[in-house]
Amino acid sequence: MSPLSVPPSEAPPKDRGESSRVNMPYSALIIDDEELTLRTISRGLRQDGFEVFTALSGEDGLKLFHDENPDLILLDIVLPGIDGVEVLRQIKQANPTAIVIMMSAYHLVERAVEAMKLGAFDYLVKPFSLDDMTTTLHRAAEVLTLRVRVRDSVESERGRYNFGRVITHNPATIRMLEVARKAAETDHTTILIQGESGTGKGVLARAIHYASPRTAMPLLELNCAALPDALLESELFGYEPGAFTDARRRKEGLLERASGGTVFLDEIANMSASVQAKMLRVLEEGTFMRLGGTSTIQVDIRLVAATNDELKNAISQGRFREDLYYRVNVVQLYIPPLRERKEDIVPLALEILQKLNGELKKCFTGLTPAAAELLEQYPWPGNIRELRNVIERTMILTSEGEIDACHLPEEIRDQHPQKKNGEPFFSADISPTGDQFLSLRELEDHYIEQVLAATGNNKTQAARILGIHPTSLQRRLKGKALE
Length: 483
Hints:
The chain has 4 domains: 137 residues, Response regulator (Rossmann fold), CATH 3.40.50.2300; 173 residues, P-loop containing nucleotide triphosphate hydrolases (Rossmann fold, 3-Layer(aba) Sandwich), CATH 3.40.50; 75 residues, Orthogonal Bundle (Helicase, Ruva Protein, domain 3), CATH 1.10.8.60; 43 residues, Homeodomain-like (Arc Repressor Mutant, subunit A). The protein contains 19 helices and 16 strands. The protein has a 5-stranded parallel sheet, with helices on both faces. A 5-stranded parallel sheet has the order 7-10-13-6-14.
């Protein structure tokens, strides 16, 4: 297969764990010392499609629970040997999310209430009808179904944002991913991702979350540059009724909703001073107060922050707290820009091409060597985001087959401006004569002037041609003006 061809699509390997049970009937364990009760409940559960296990004692029930890992447990309070409440306690210690429905007689309602405090899902008072049992079971089944959907979603996202699926042959990026993978395995370590816009900081943050012990808990994201200060603060911390003019009801903030999981804050350098102070408290103490609130709220989050700004510069300019910087910058990850990863450009383009074939219902087979060469030469100021934009635009406007150089957008094709007569615009009239040589600085200045003239003084386009950042070009021009 040609290295410029799209590989056949490969489905991610299926997880053989819990999510494989989605299409299987739910299982139920009944623990009761009355054989008639066992037979009656078992018959009703099997009619509803449950796989049923039964035990006549608490000891046998616990053994079956550990051996079979049932989805649902119906547990009598009065049992020979270990009683039902103690069985419940041990089940909840082994699996806090286990759904246990207690069964008790009228005179044992107080014990049933005790069981509810230990985490029982519900209780049925004997004698109960099959209709009562069915209603309770259906509610439990809804919870089980929701859990299955959540597991499926987590498994899908884990497959999508997997370190093993990252395409790179760049040594610096490979080393960065090794550090990221190790950091992901920790539970609380704060991570700072730095890199230019479009390099994939959000994708890396998701990969870290889905490789962490918090993978089954929420991952919530917020772009700090997209919201004004007041709105950012209310979105993060929530608010109480009356906290401000339009606050008519209580609202939980992102930190509360993400408790137990991961919070990804993009463009963290754009936080106001007051939000920075509150975030420092969250990271140091795990607490905060809603806007307008008086009570302290405890949360357990893992923070992944990202910025395309140099935070040390922001500190020296008084825009970012130094103490927050050291709290955020426990593990620092830097994603190199695409222009420094030329060996990754064509593989990434082919991967994007393959994905877009499915999304756009197209059948593109790859890139010609000429197209690949142009893609590698282009400086990609917008990084991977711009690469995807270019590939998608080309696929929409081009007939299926191989993408050739002539199919690529004009800014990719015309990376070296020409004079109208076809001659290179970099003229020879600055060539040295005799002993009169130009300095390298003078040669560069002359070249920059000609690029600016050729682009109609479009500094963004000129910077792209020169292969430097627009800010660097501005500094160069400003320094020249001061000379």
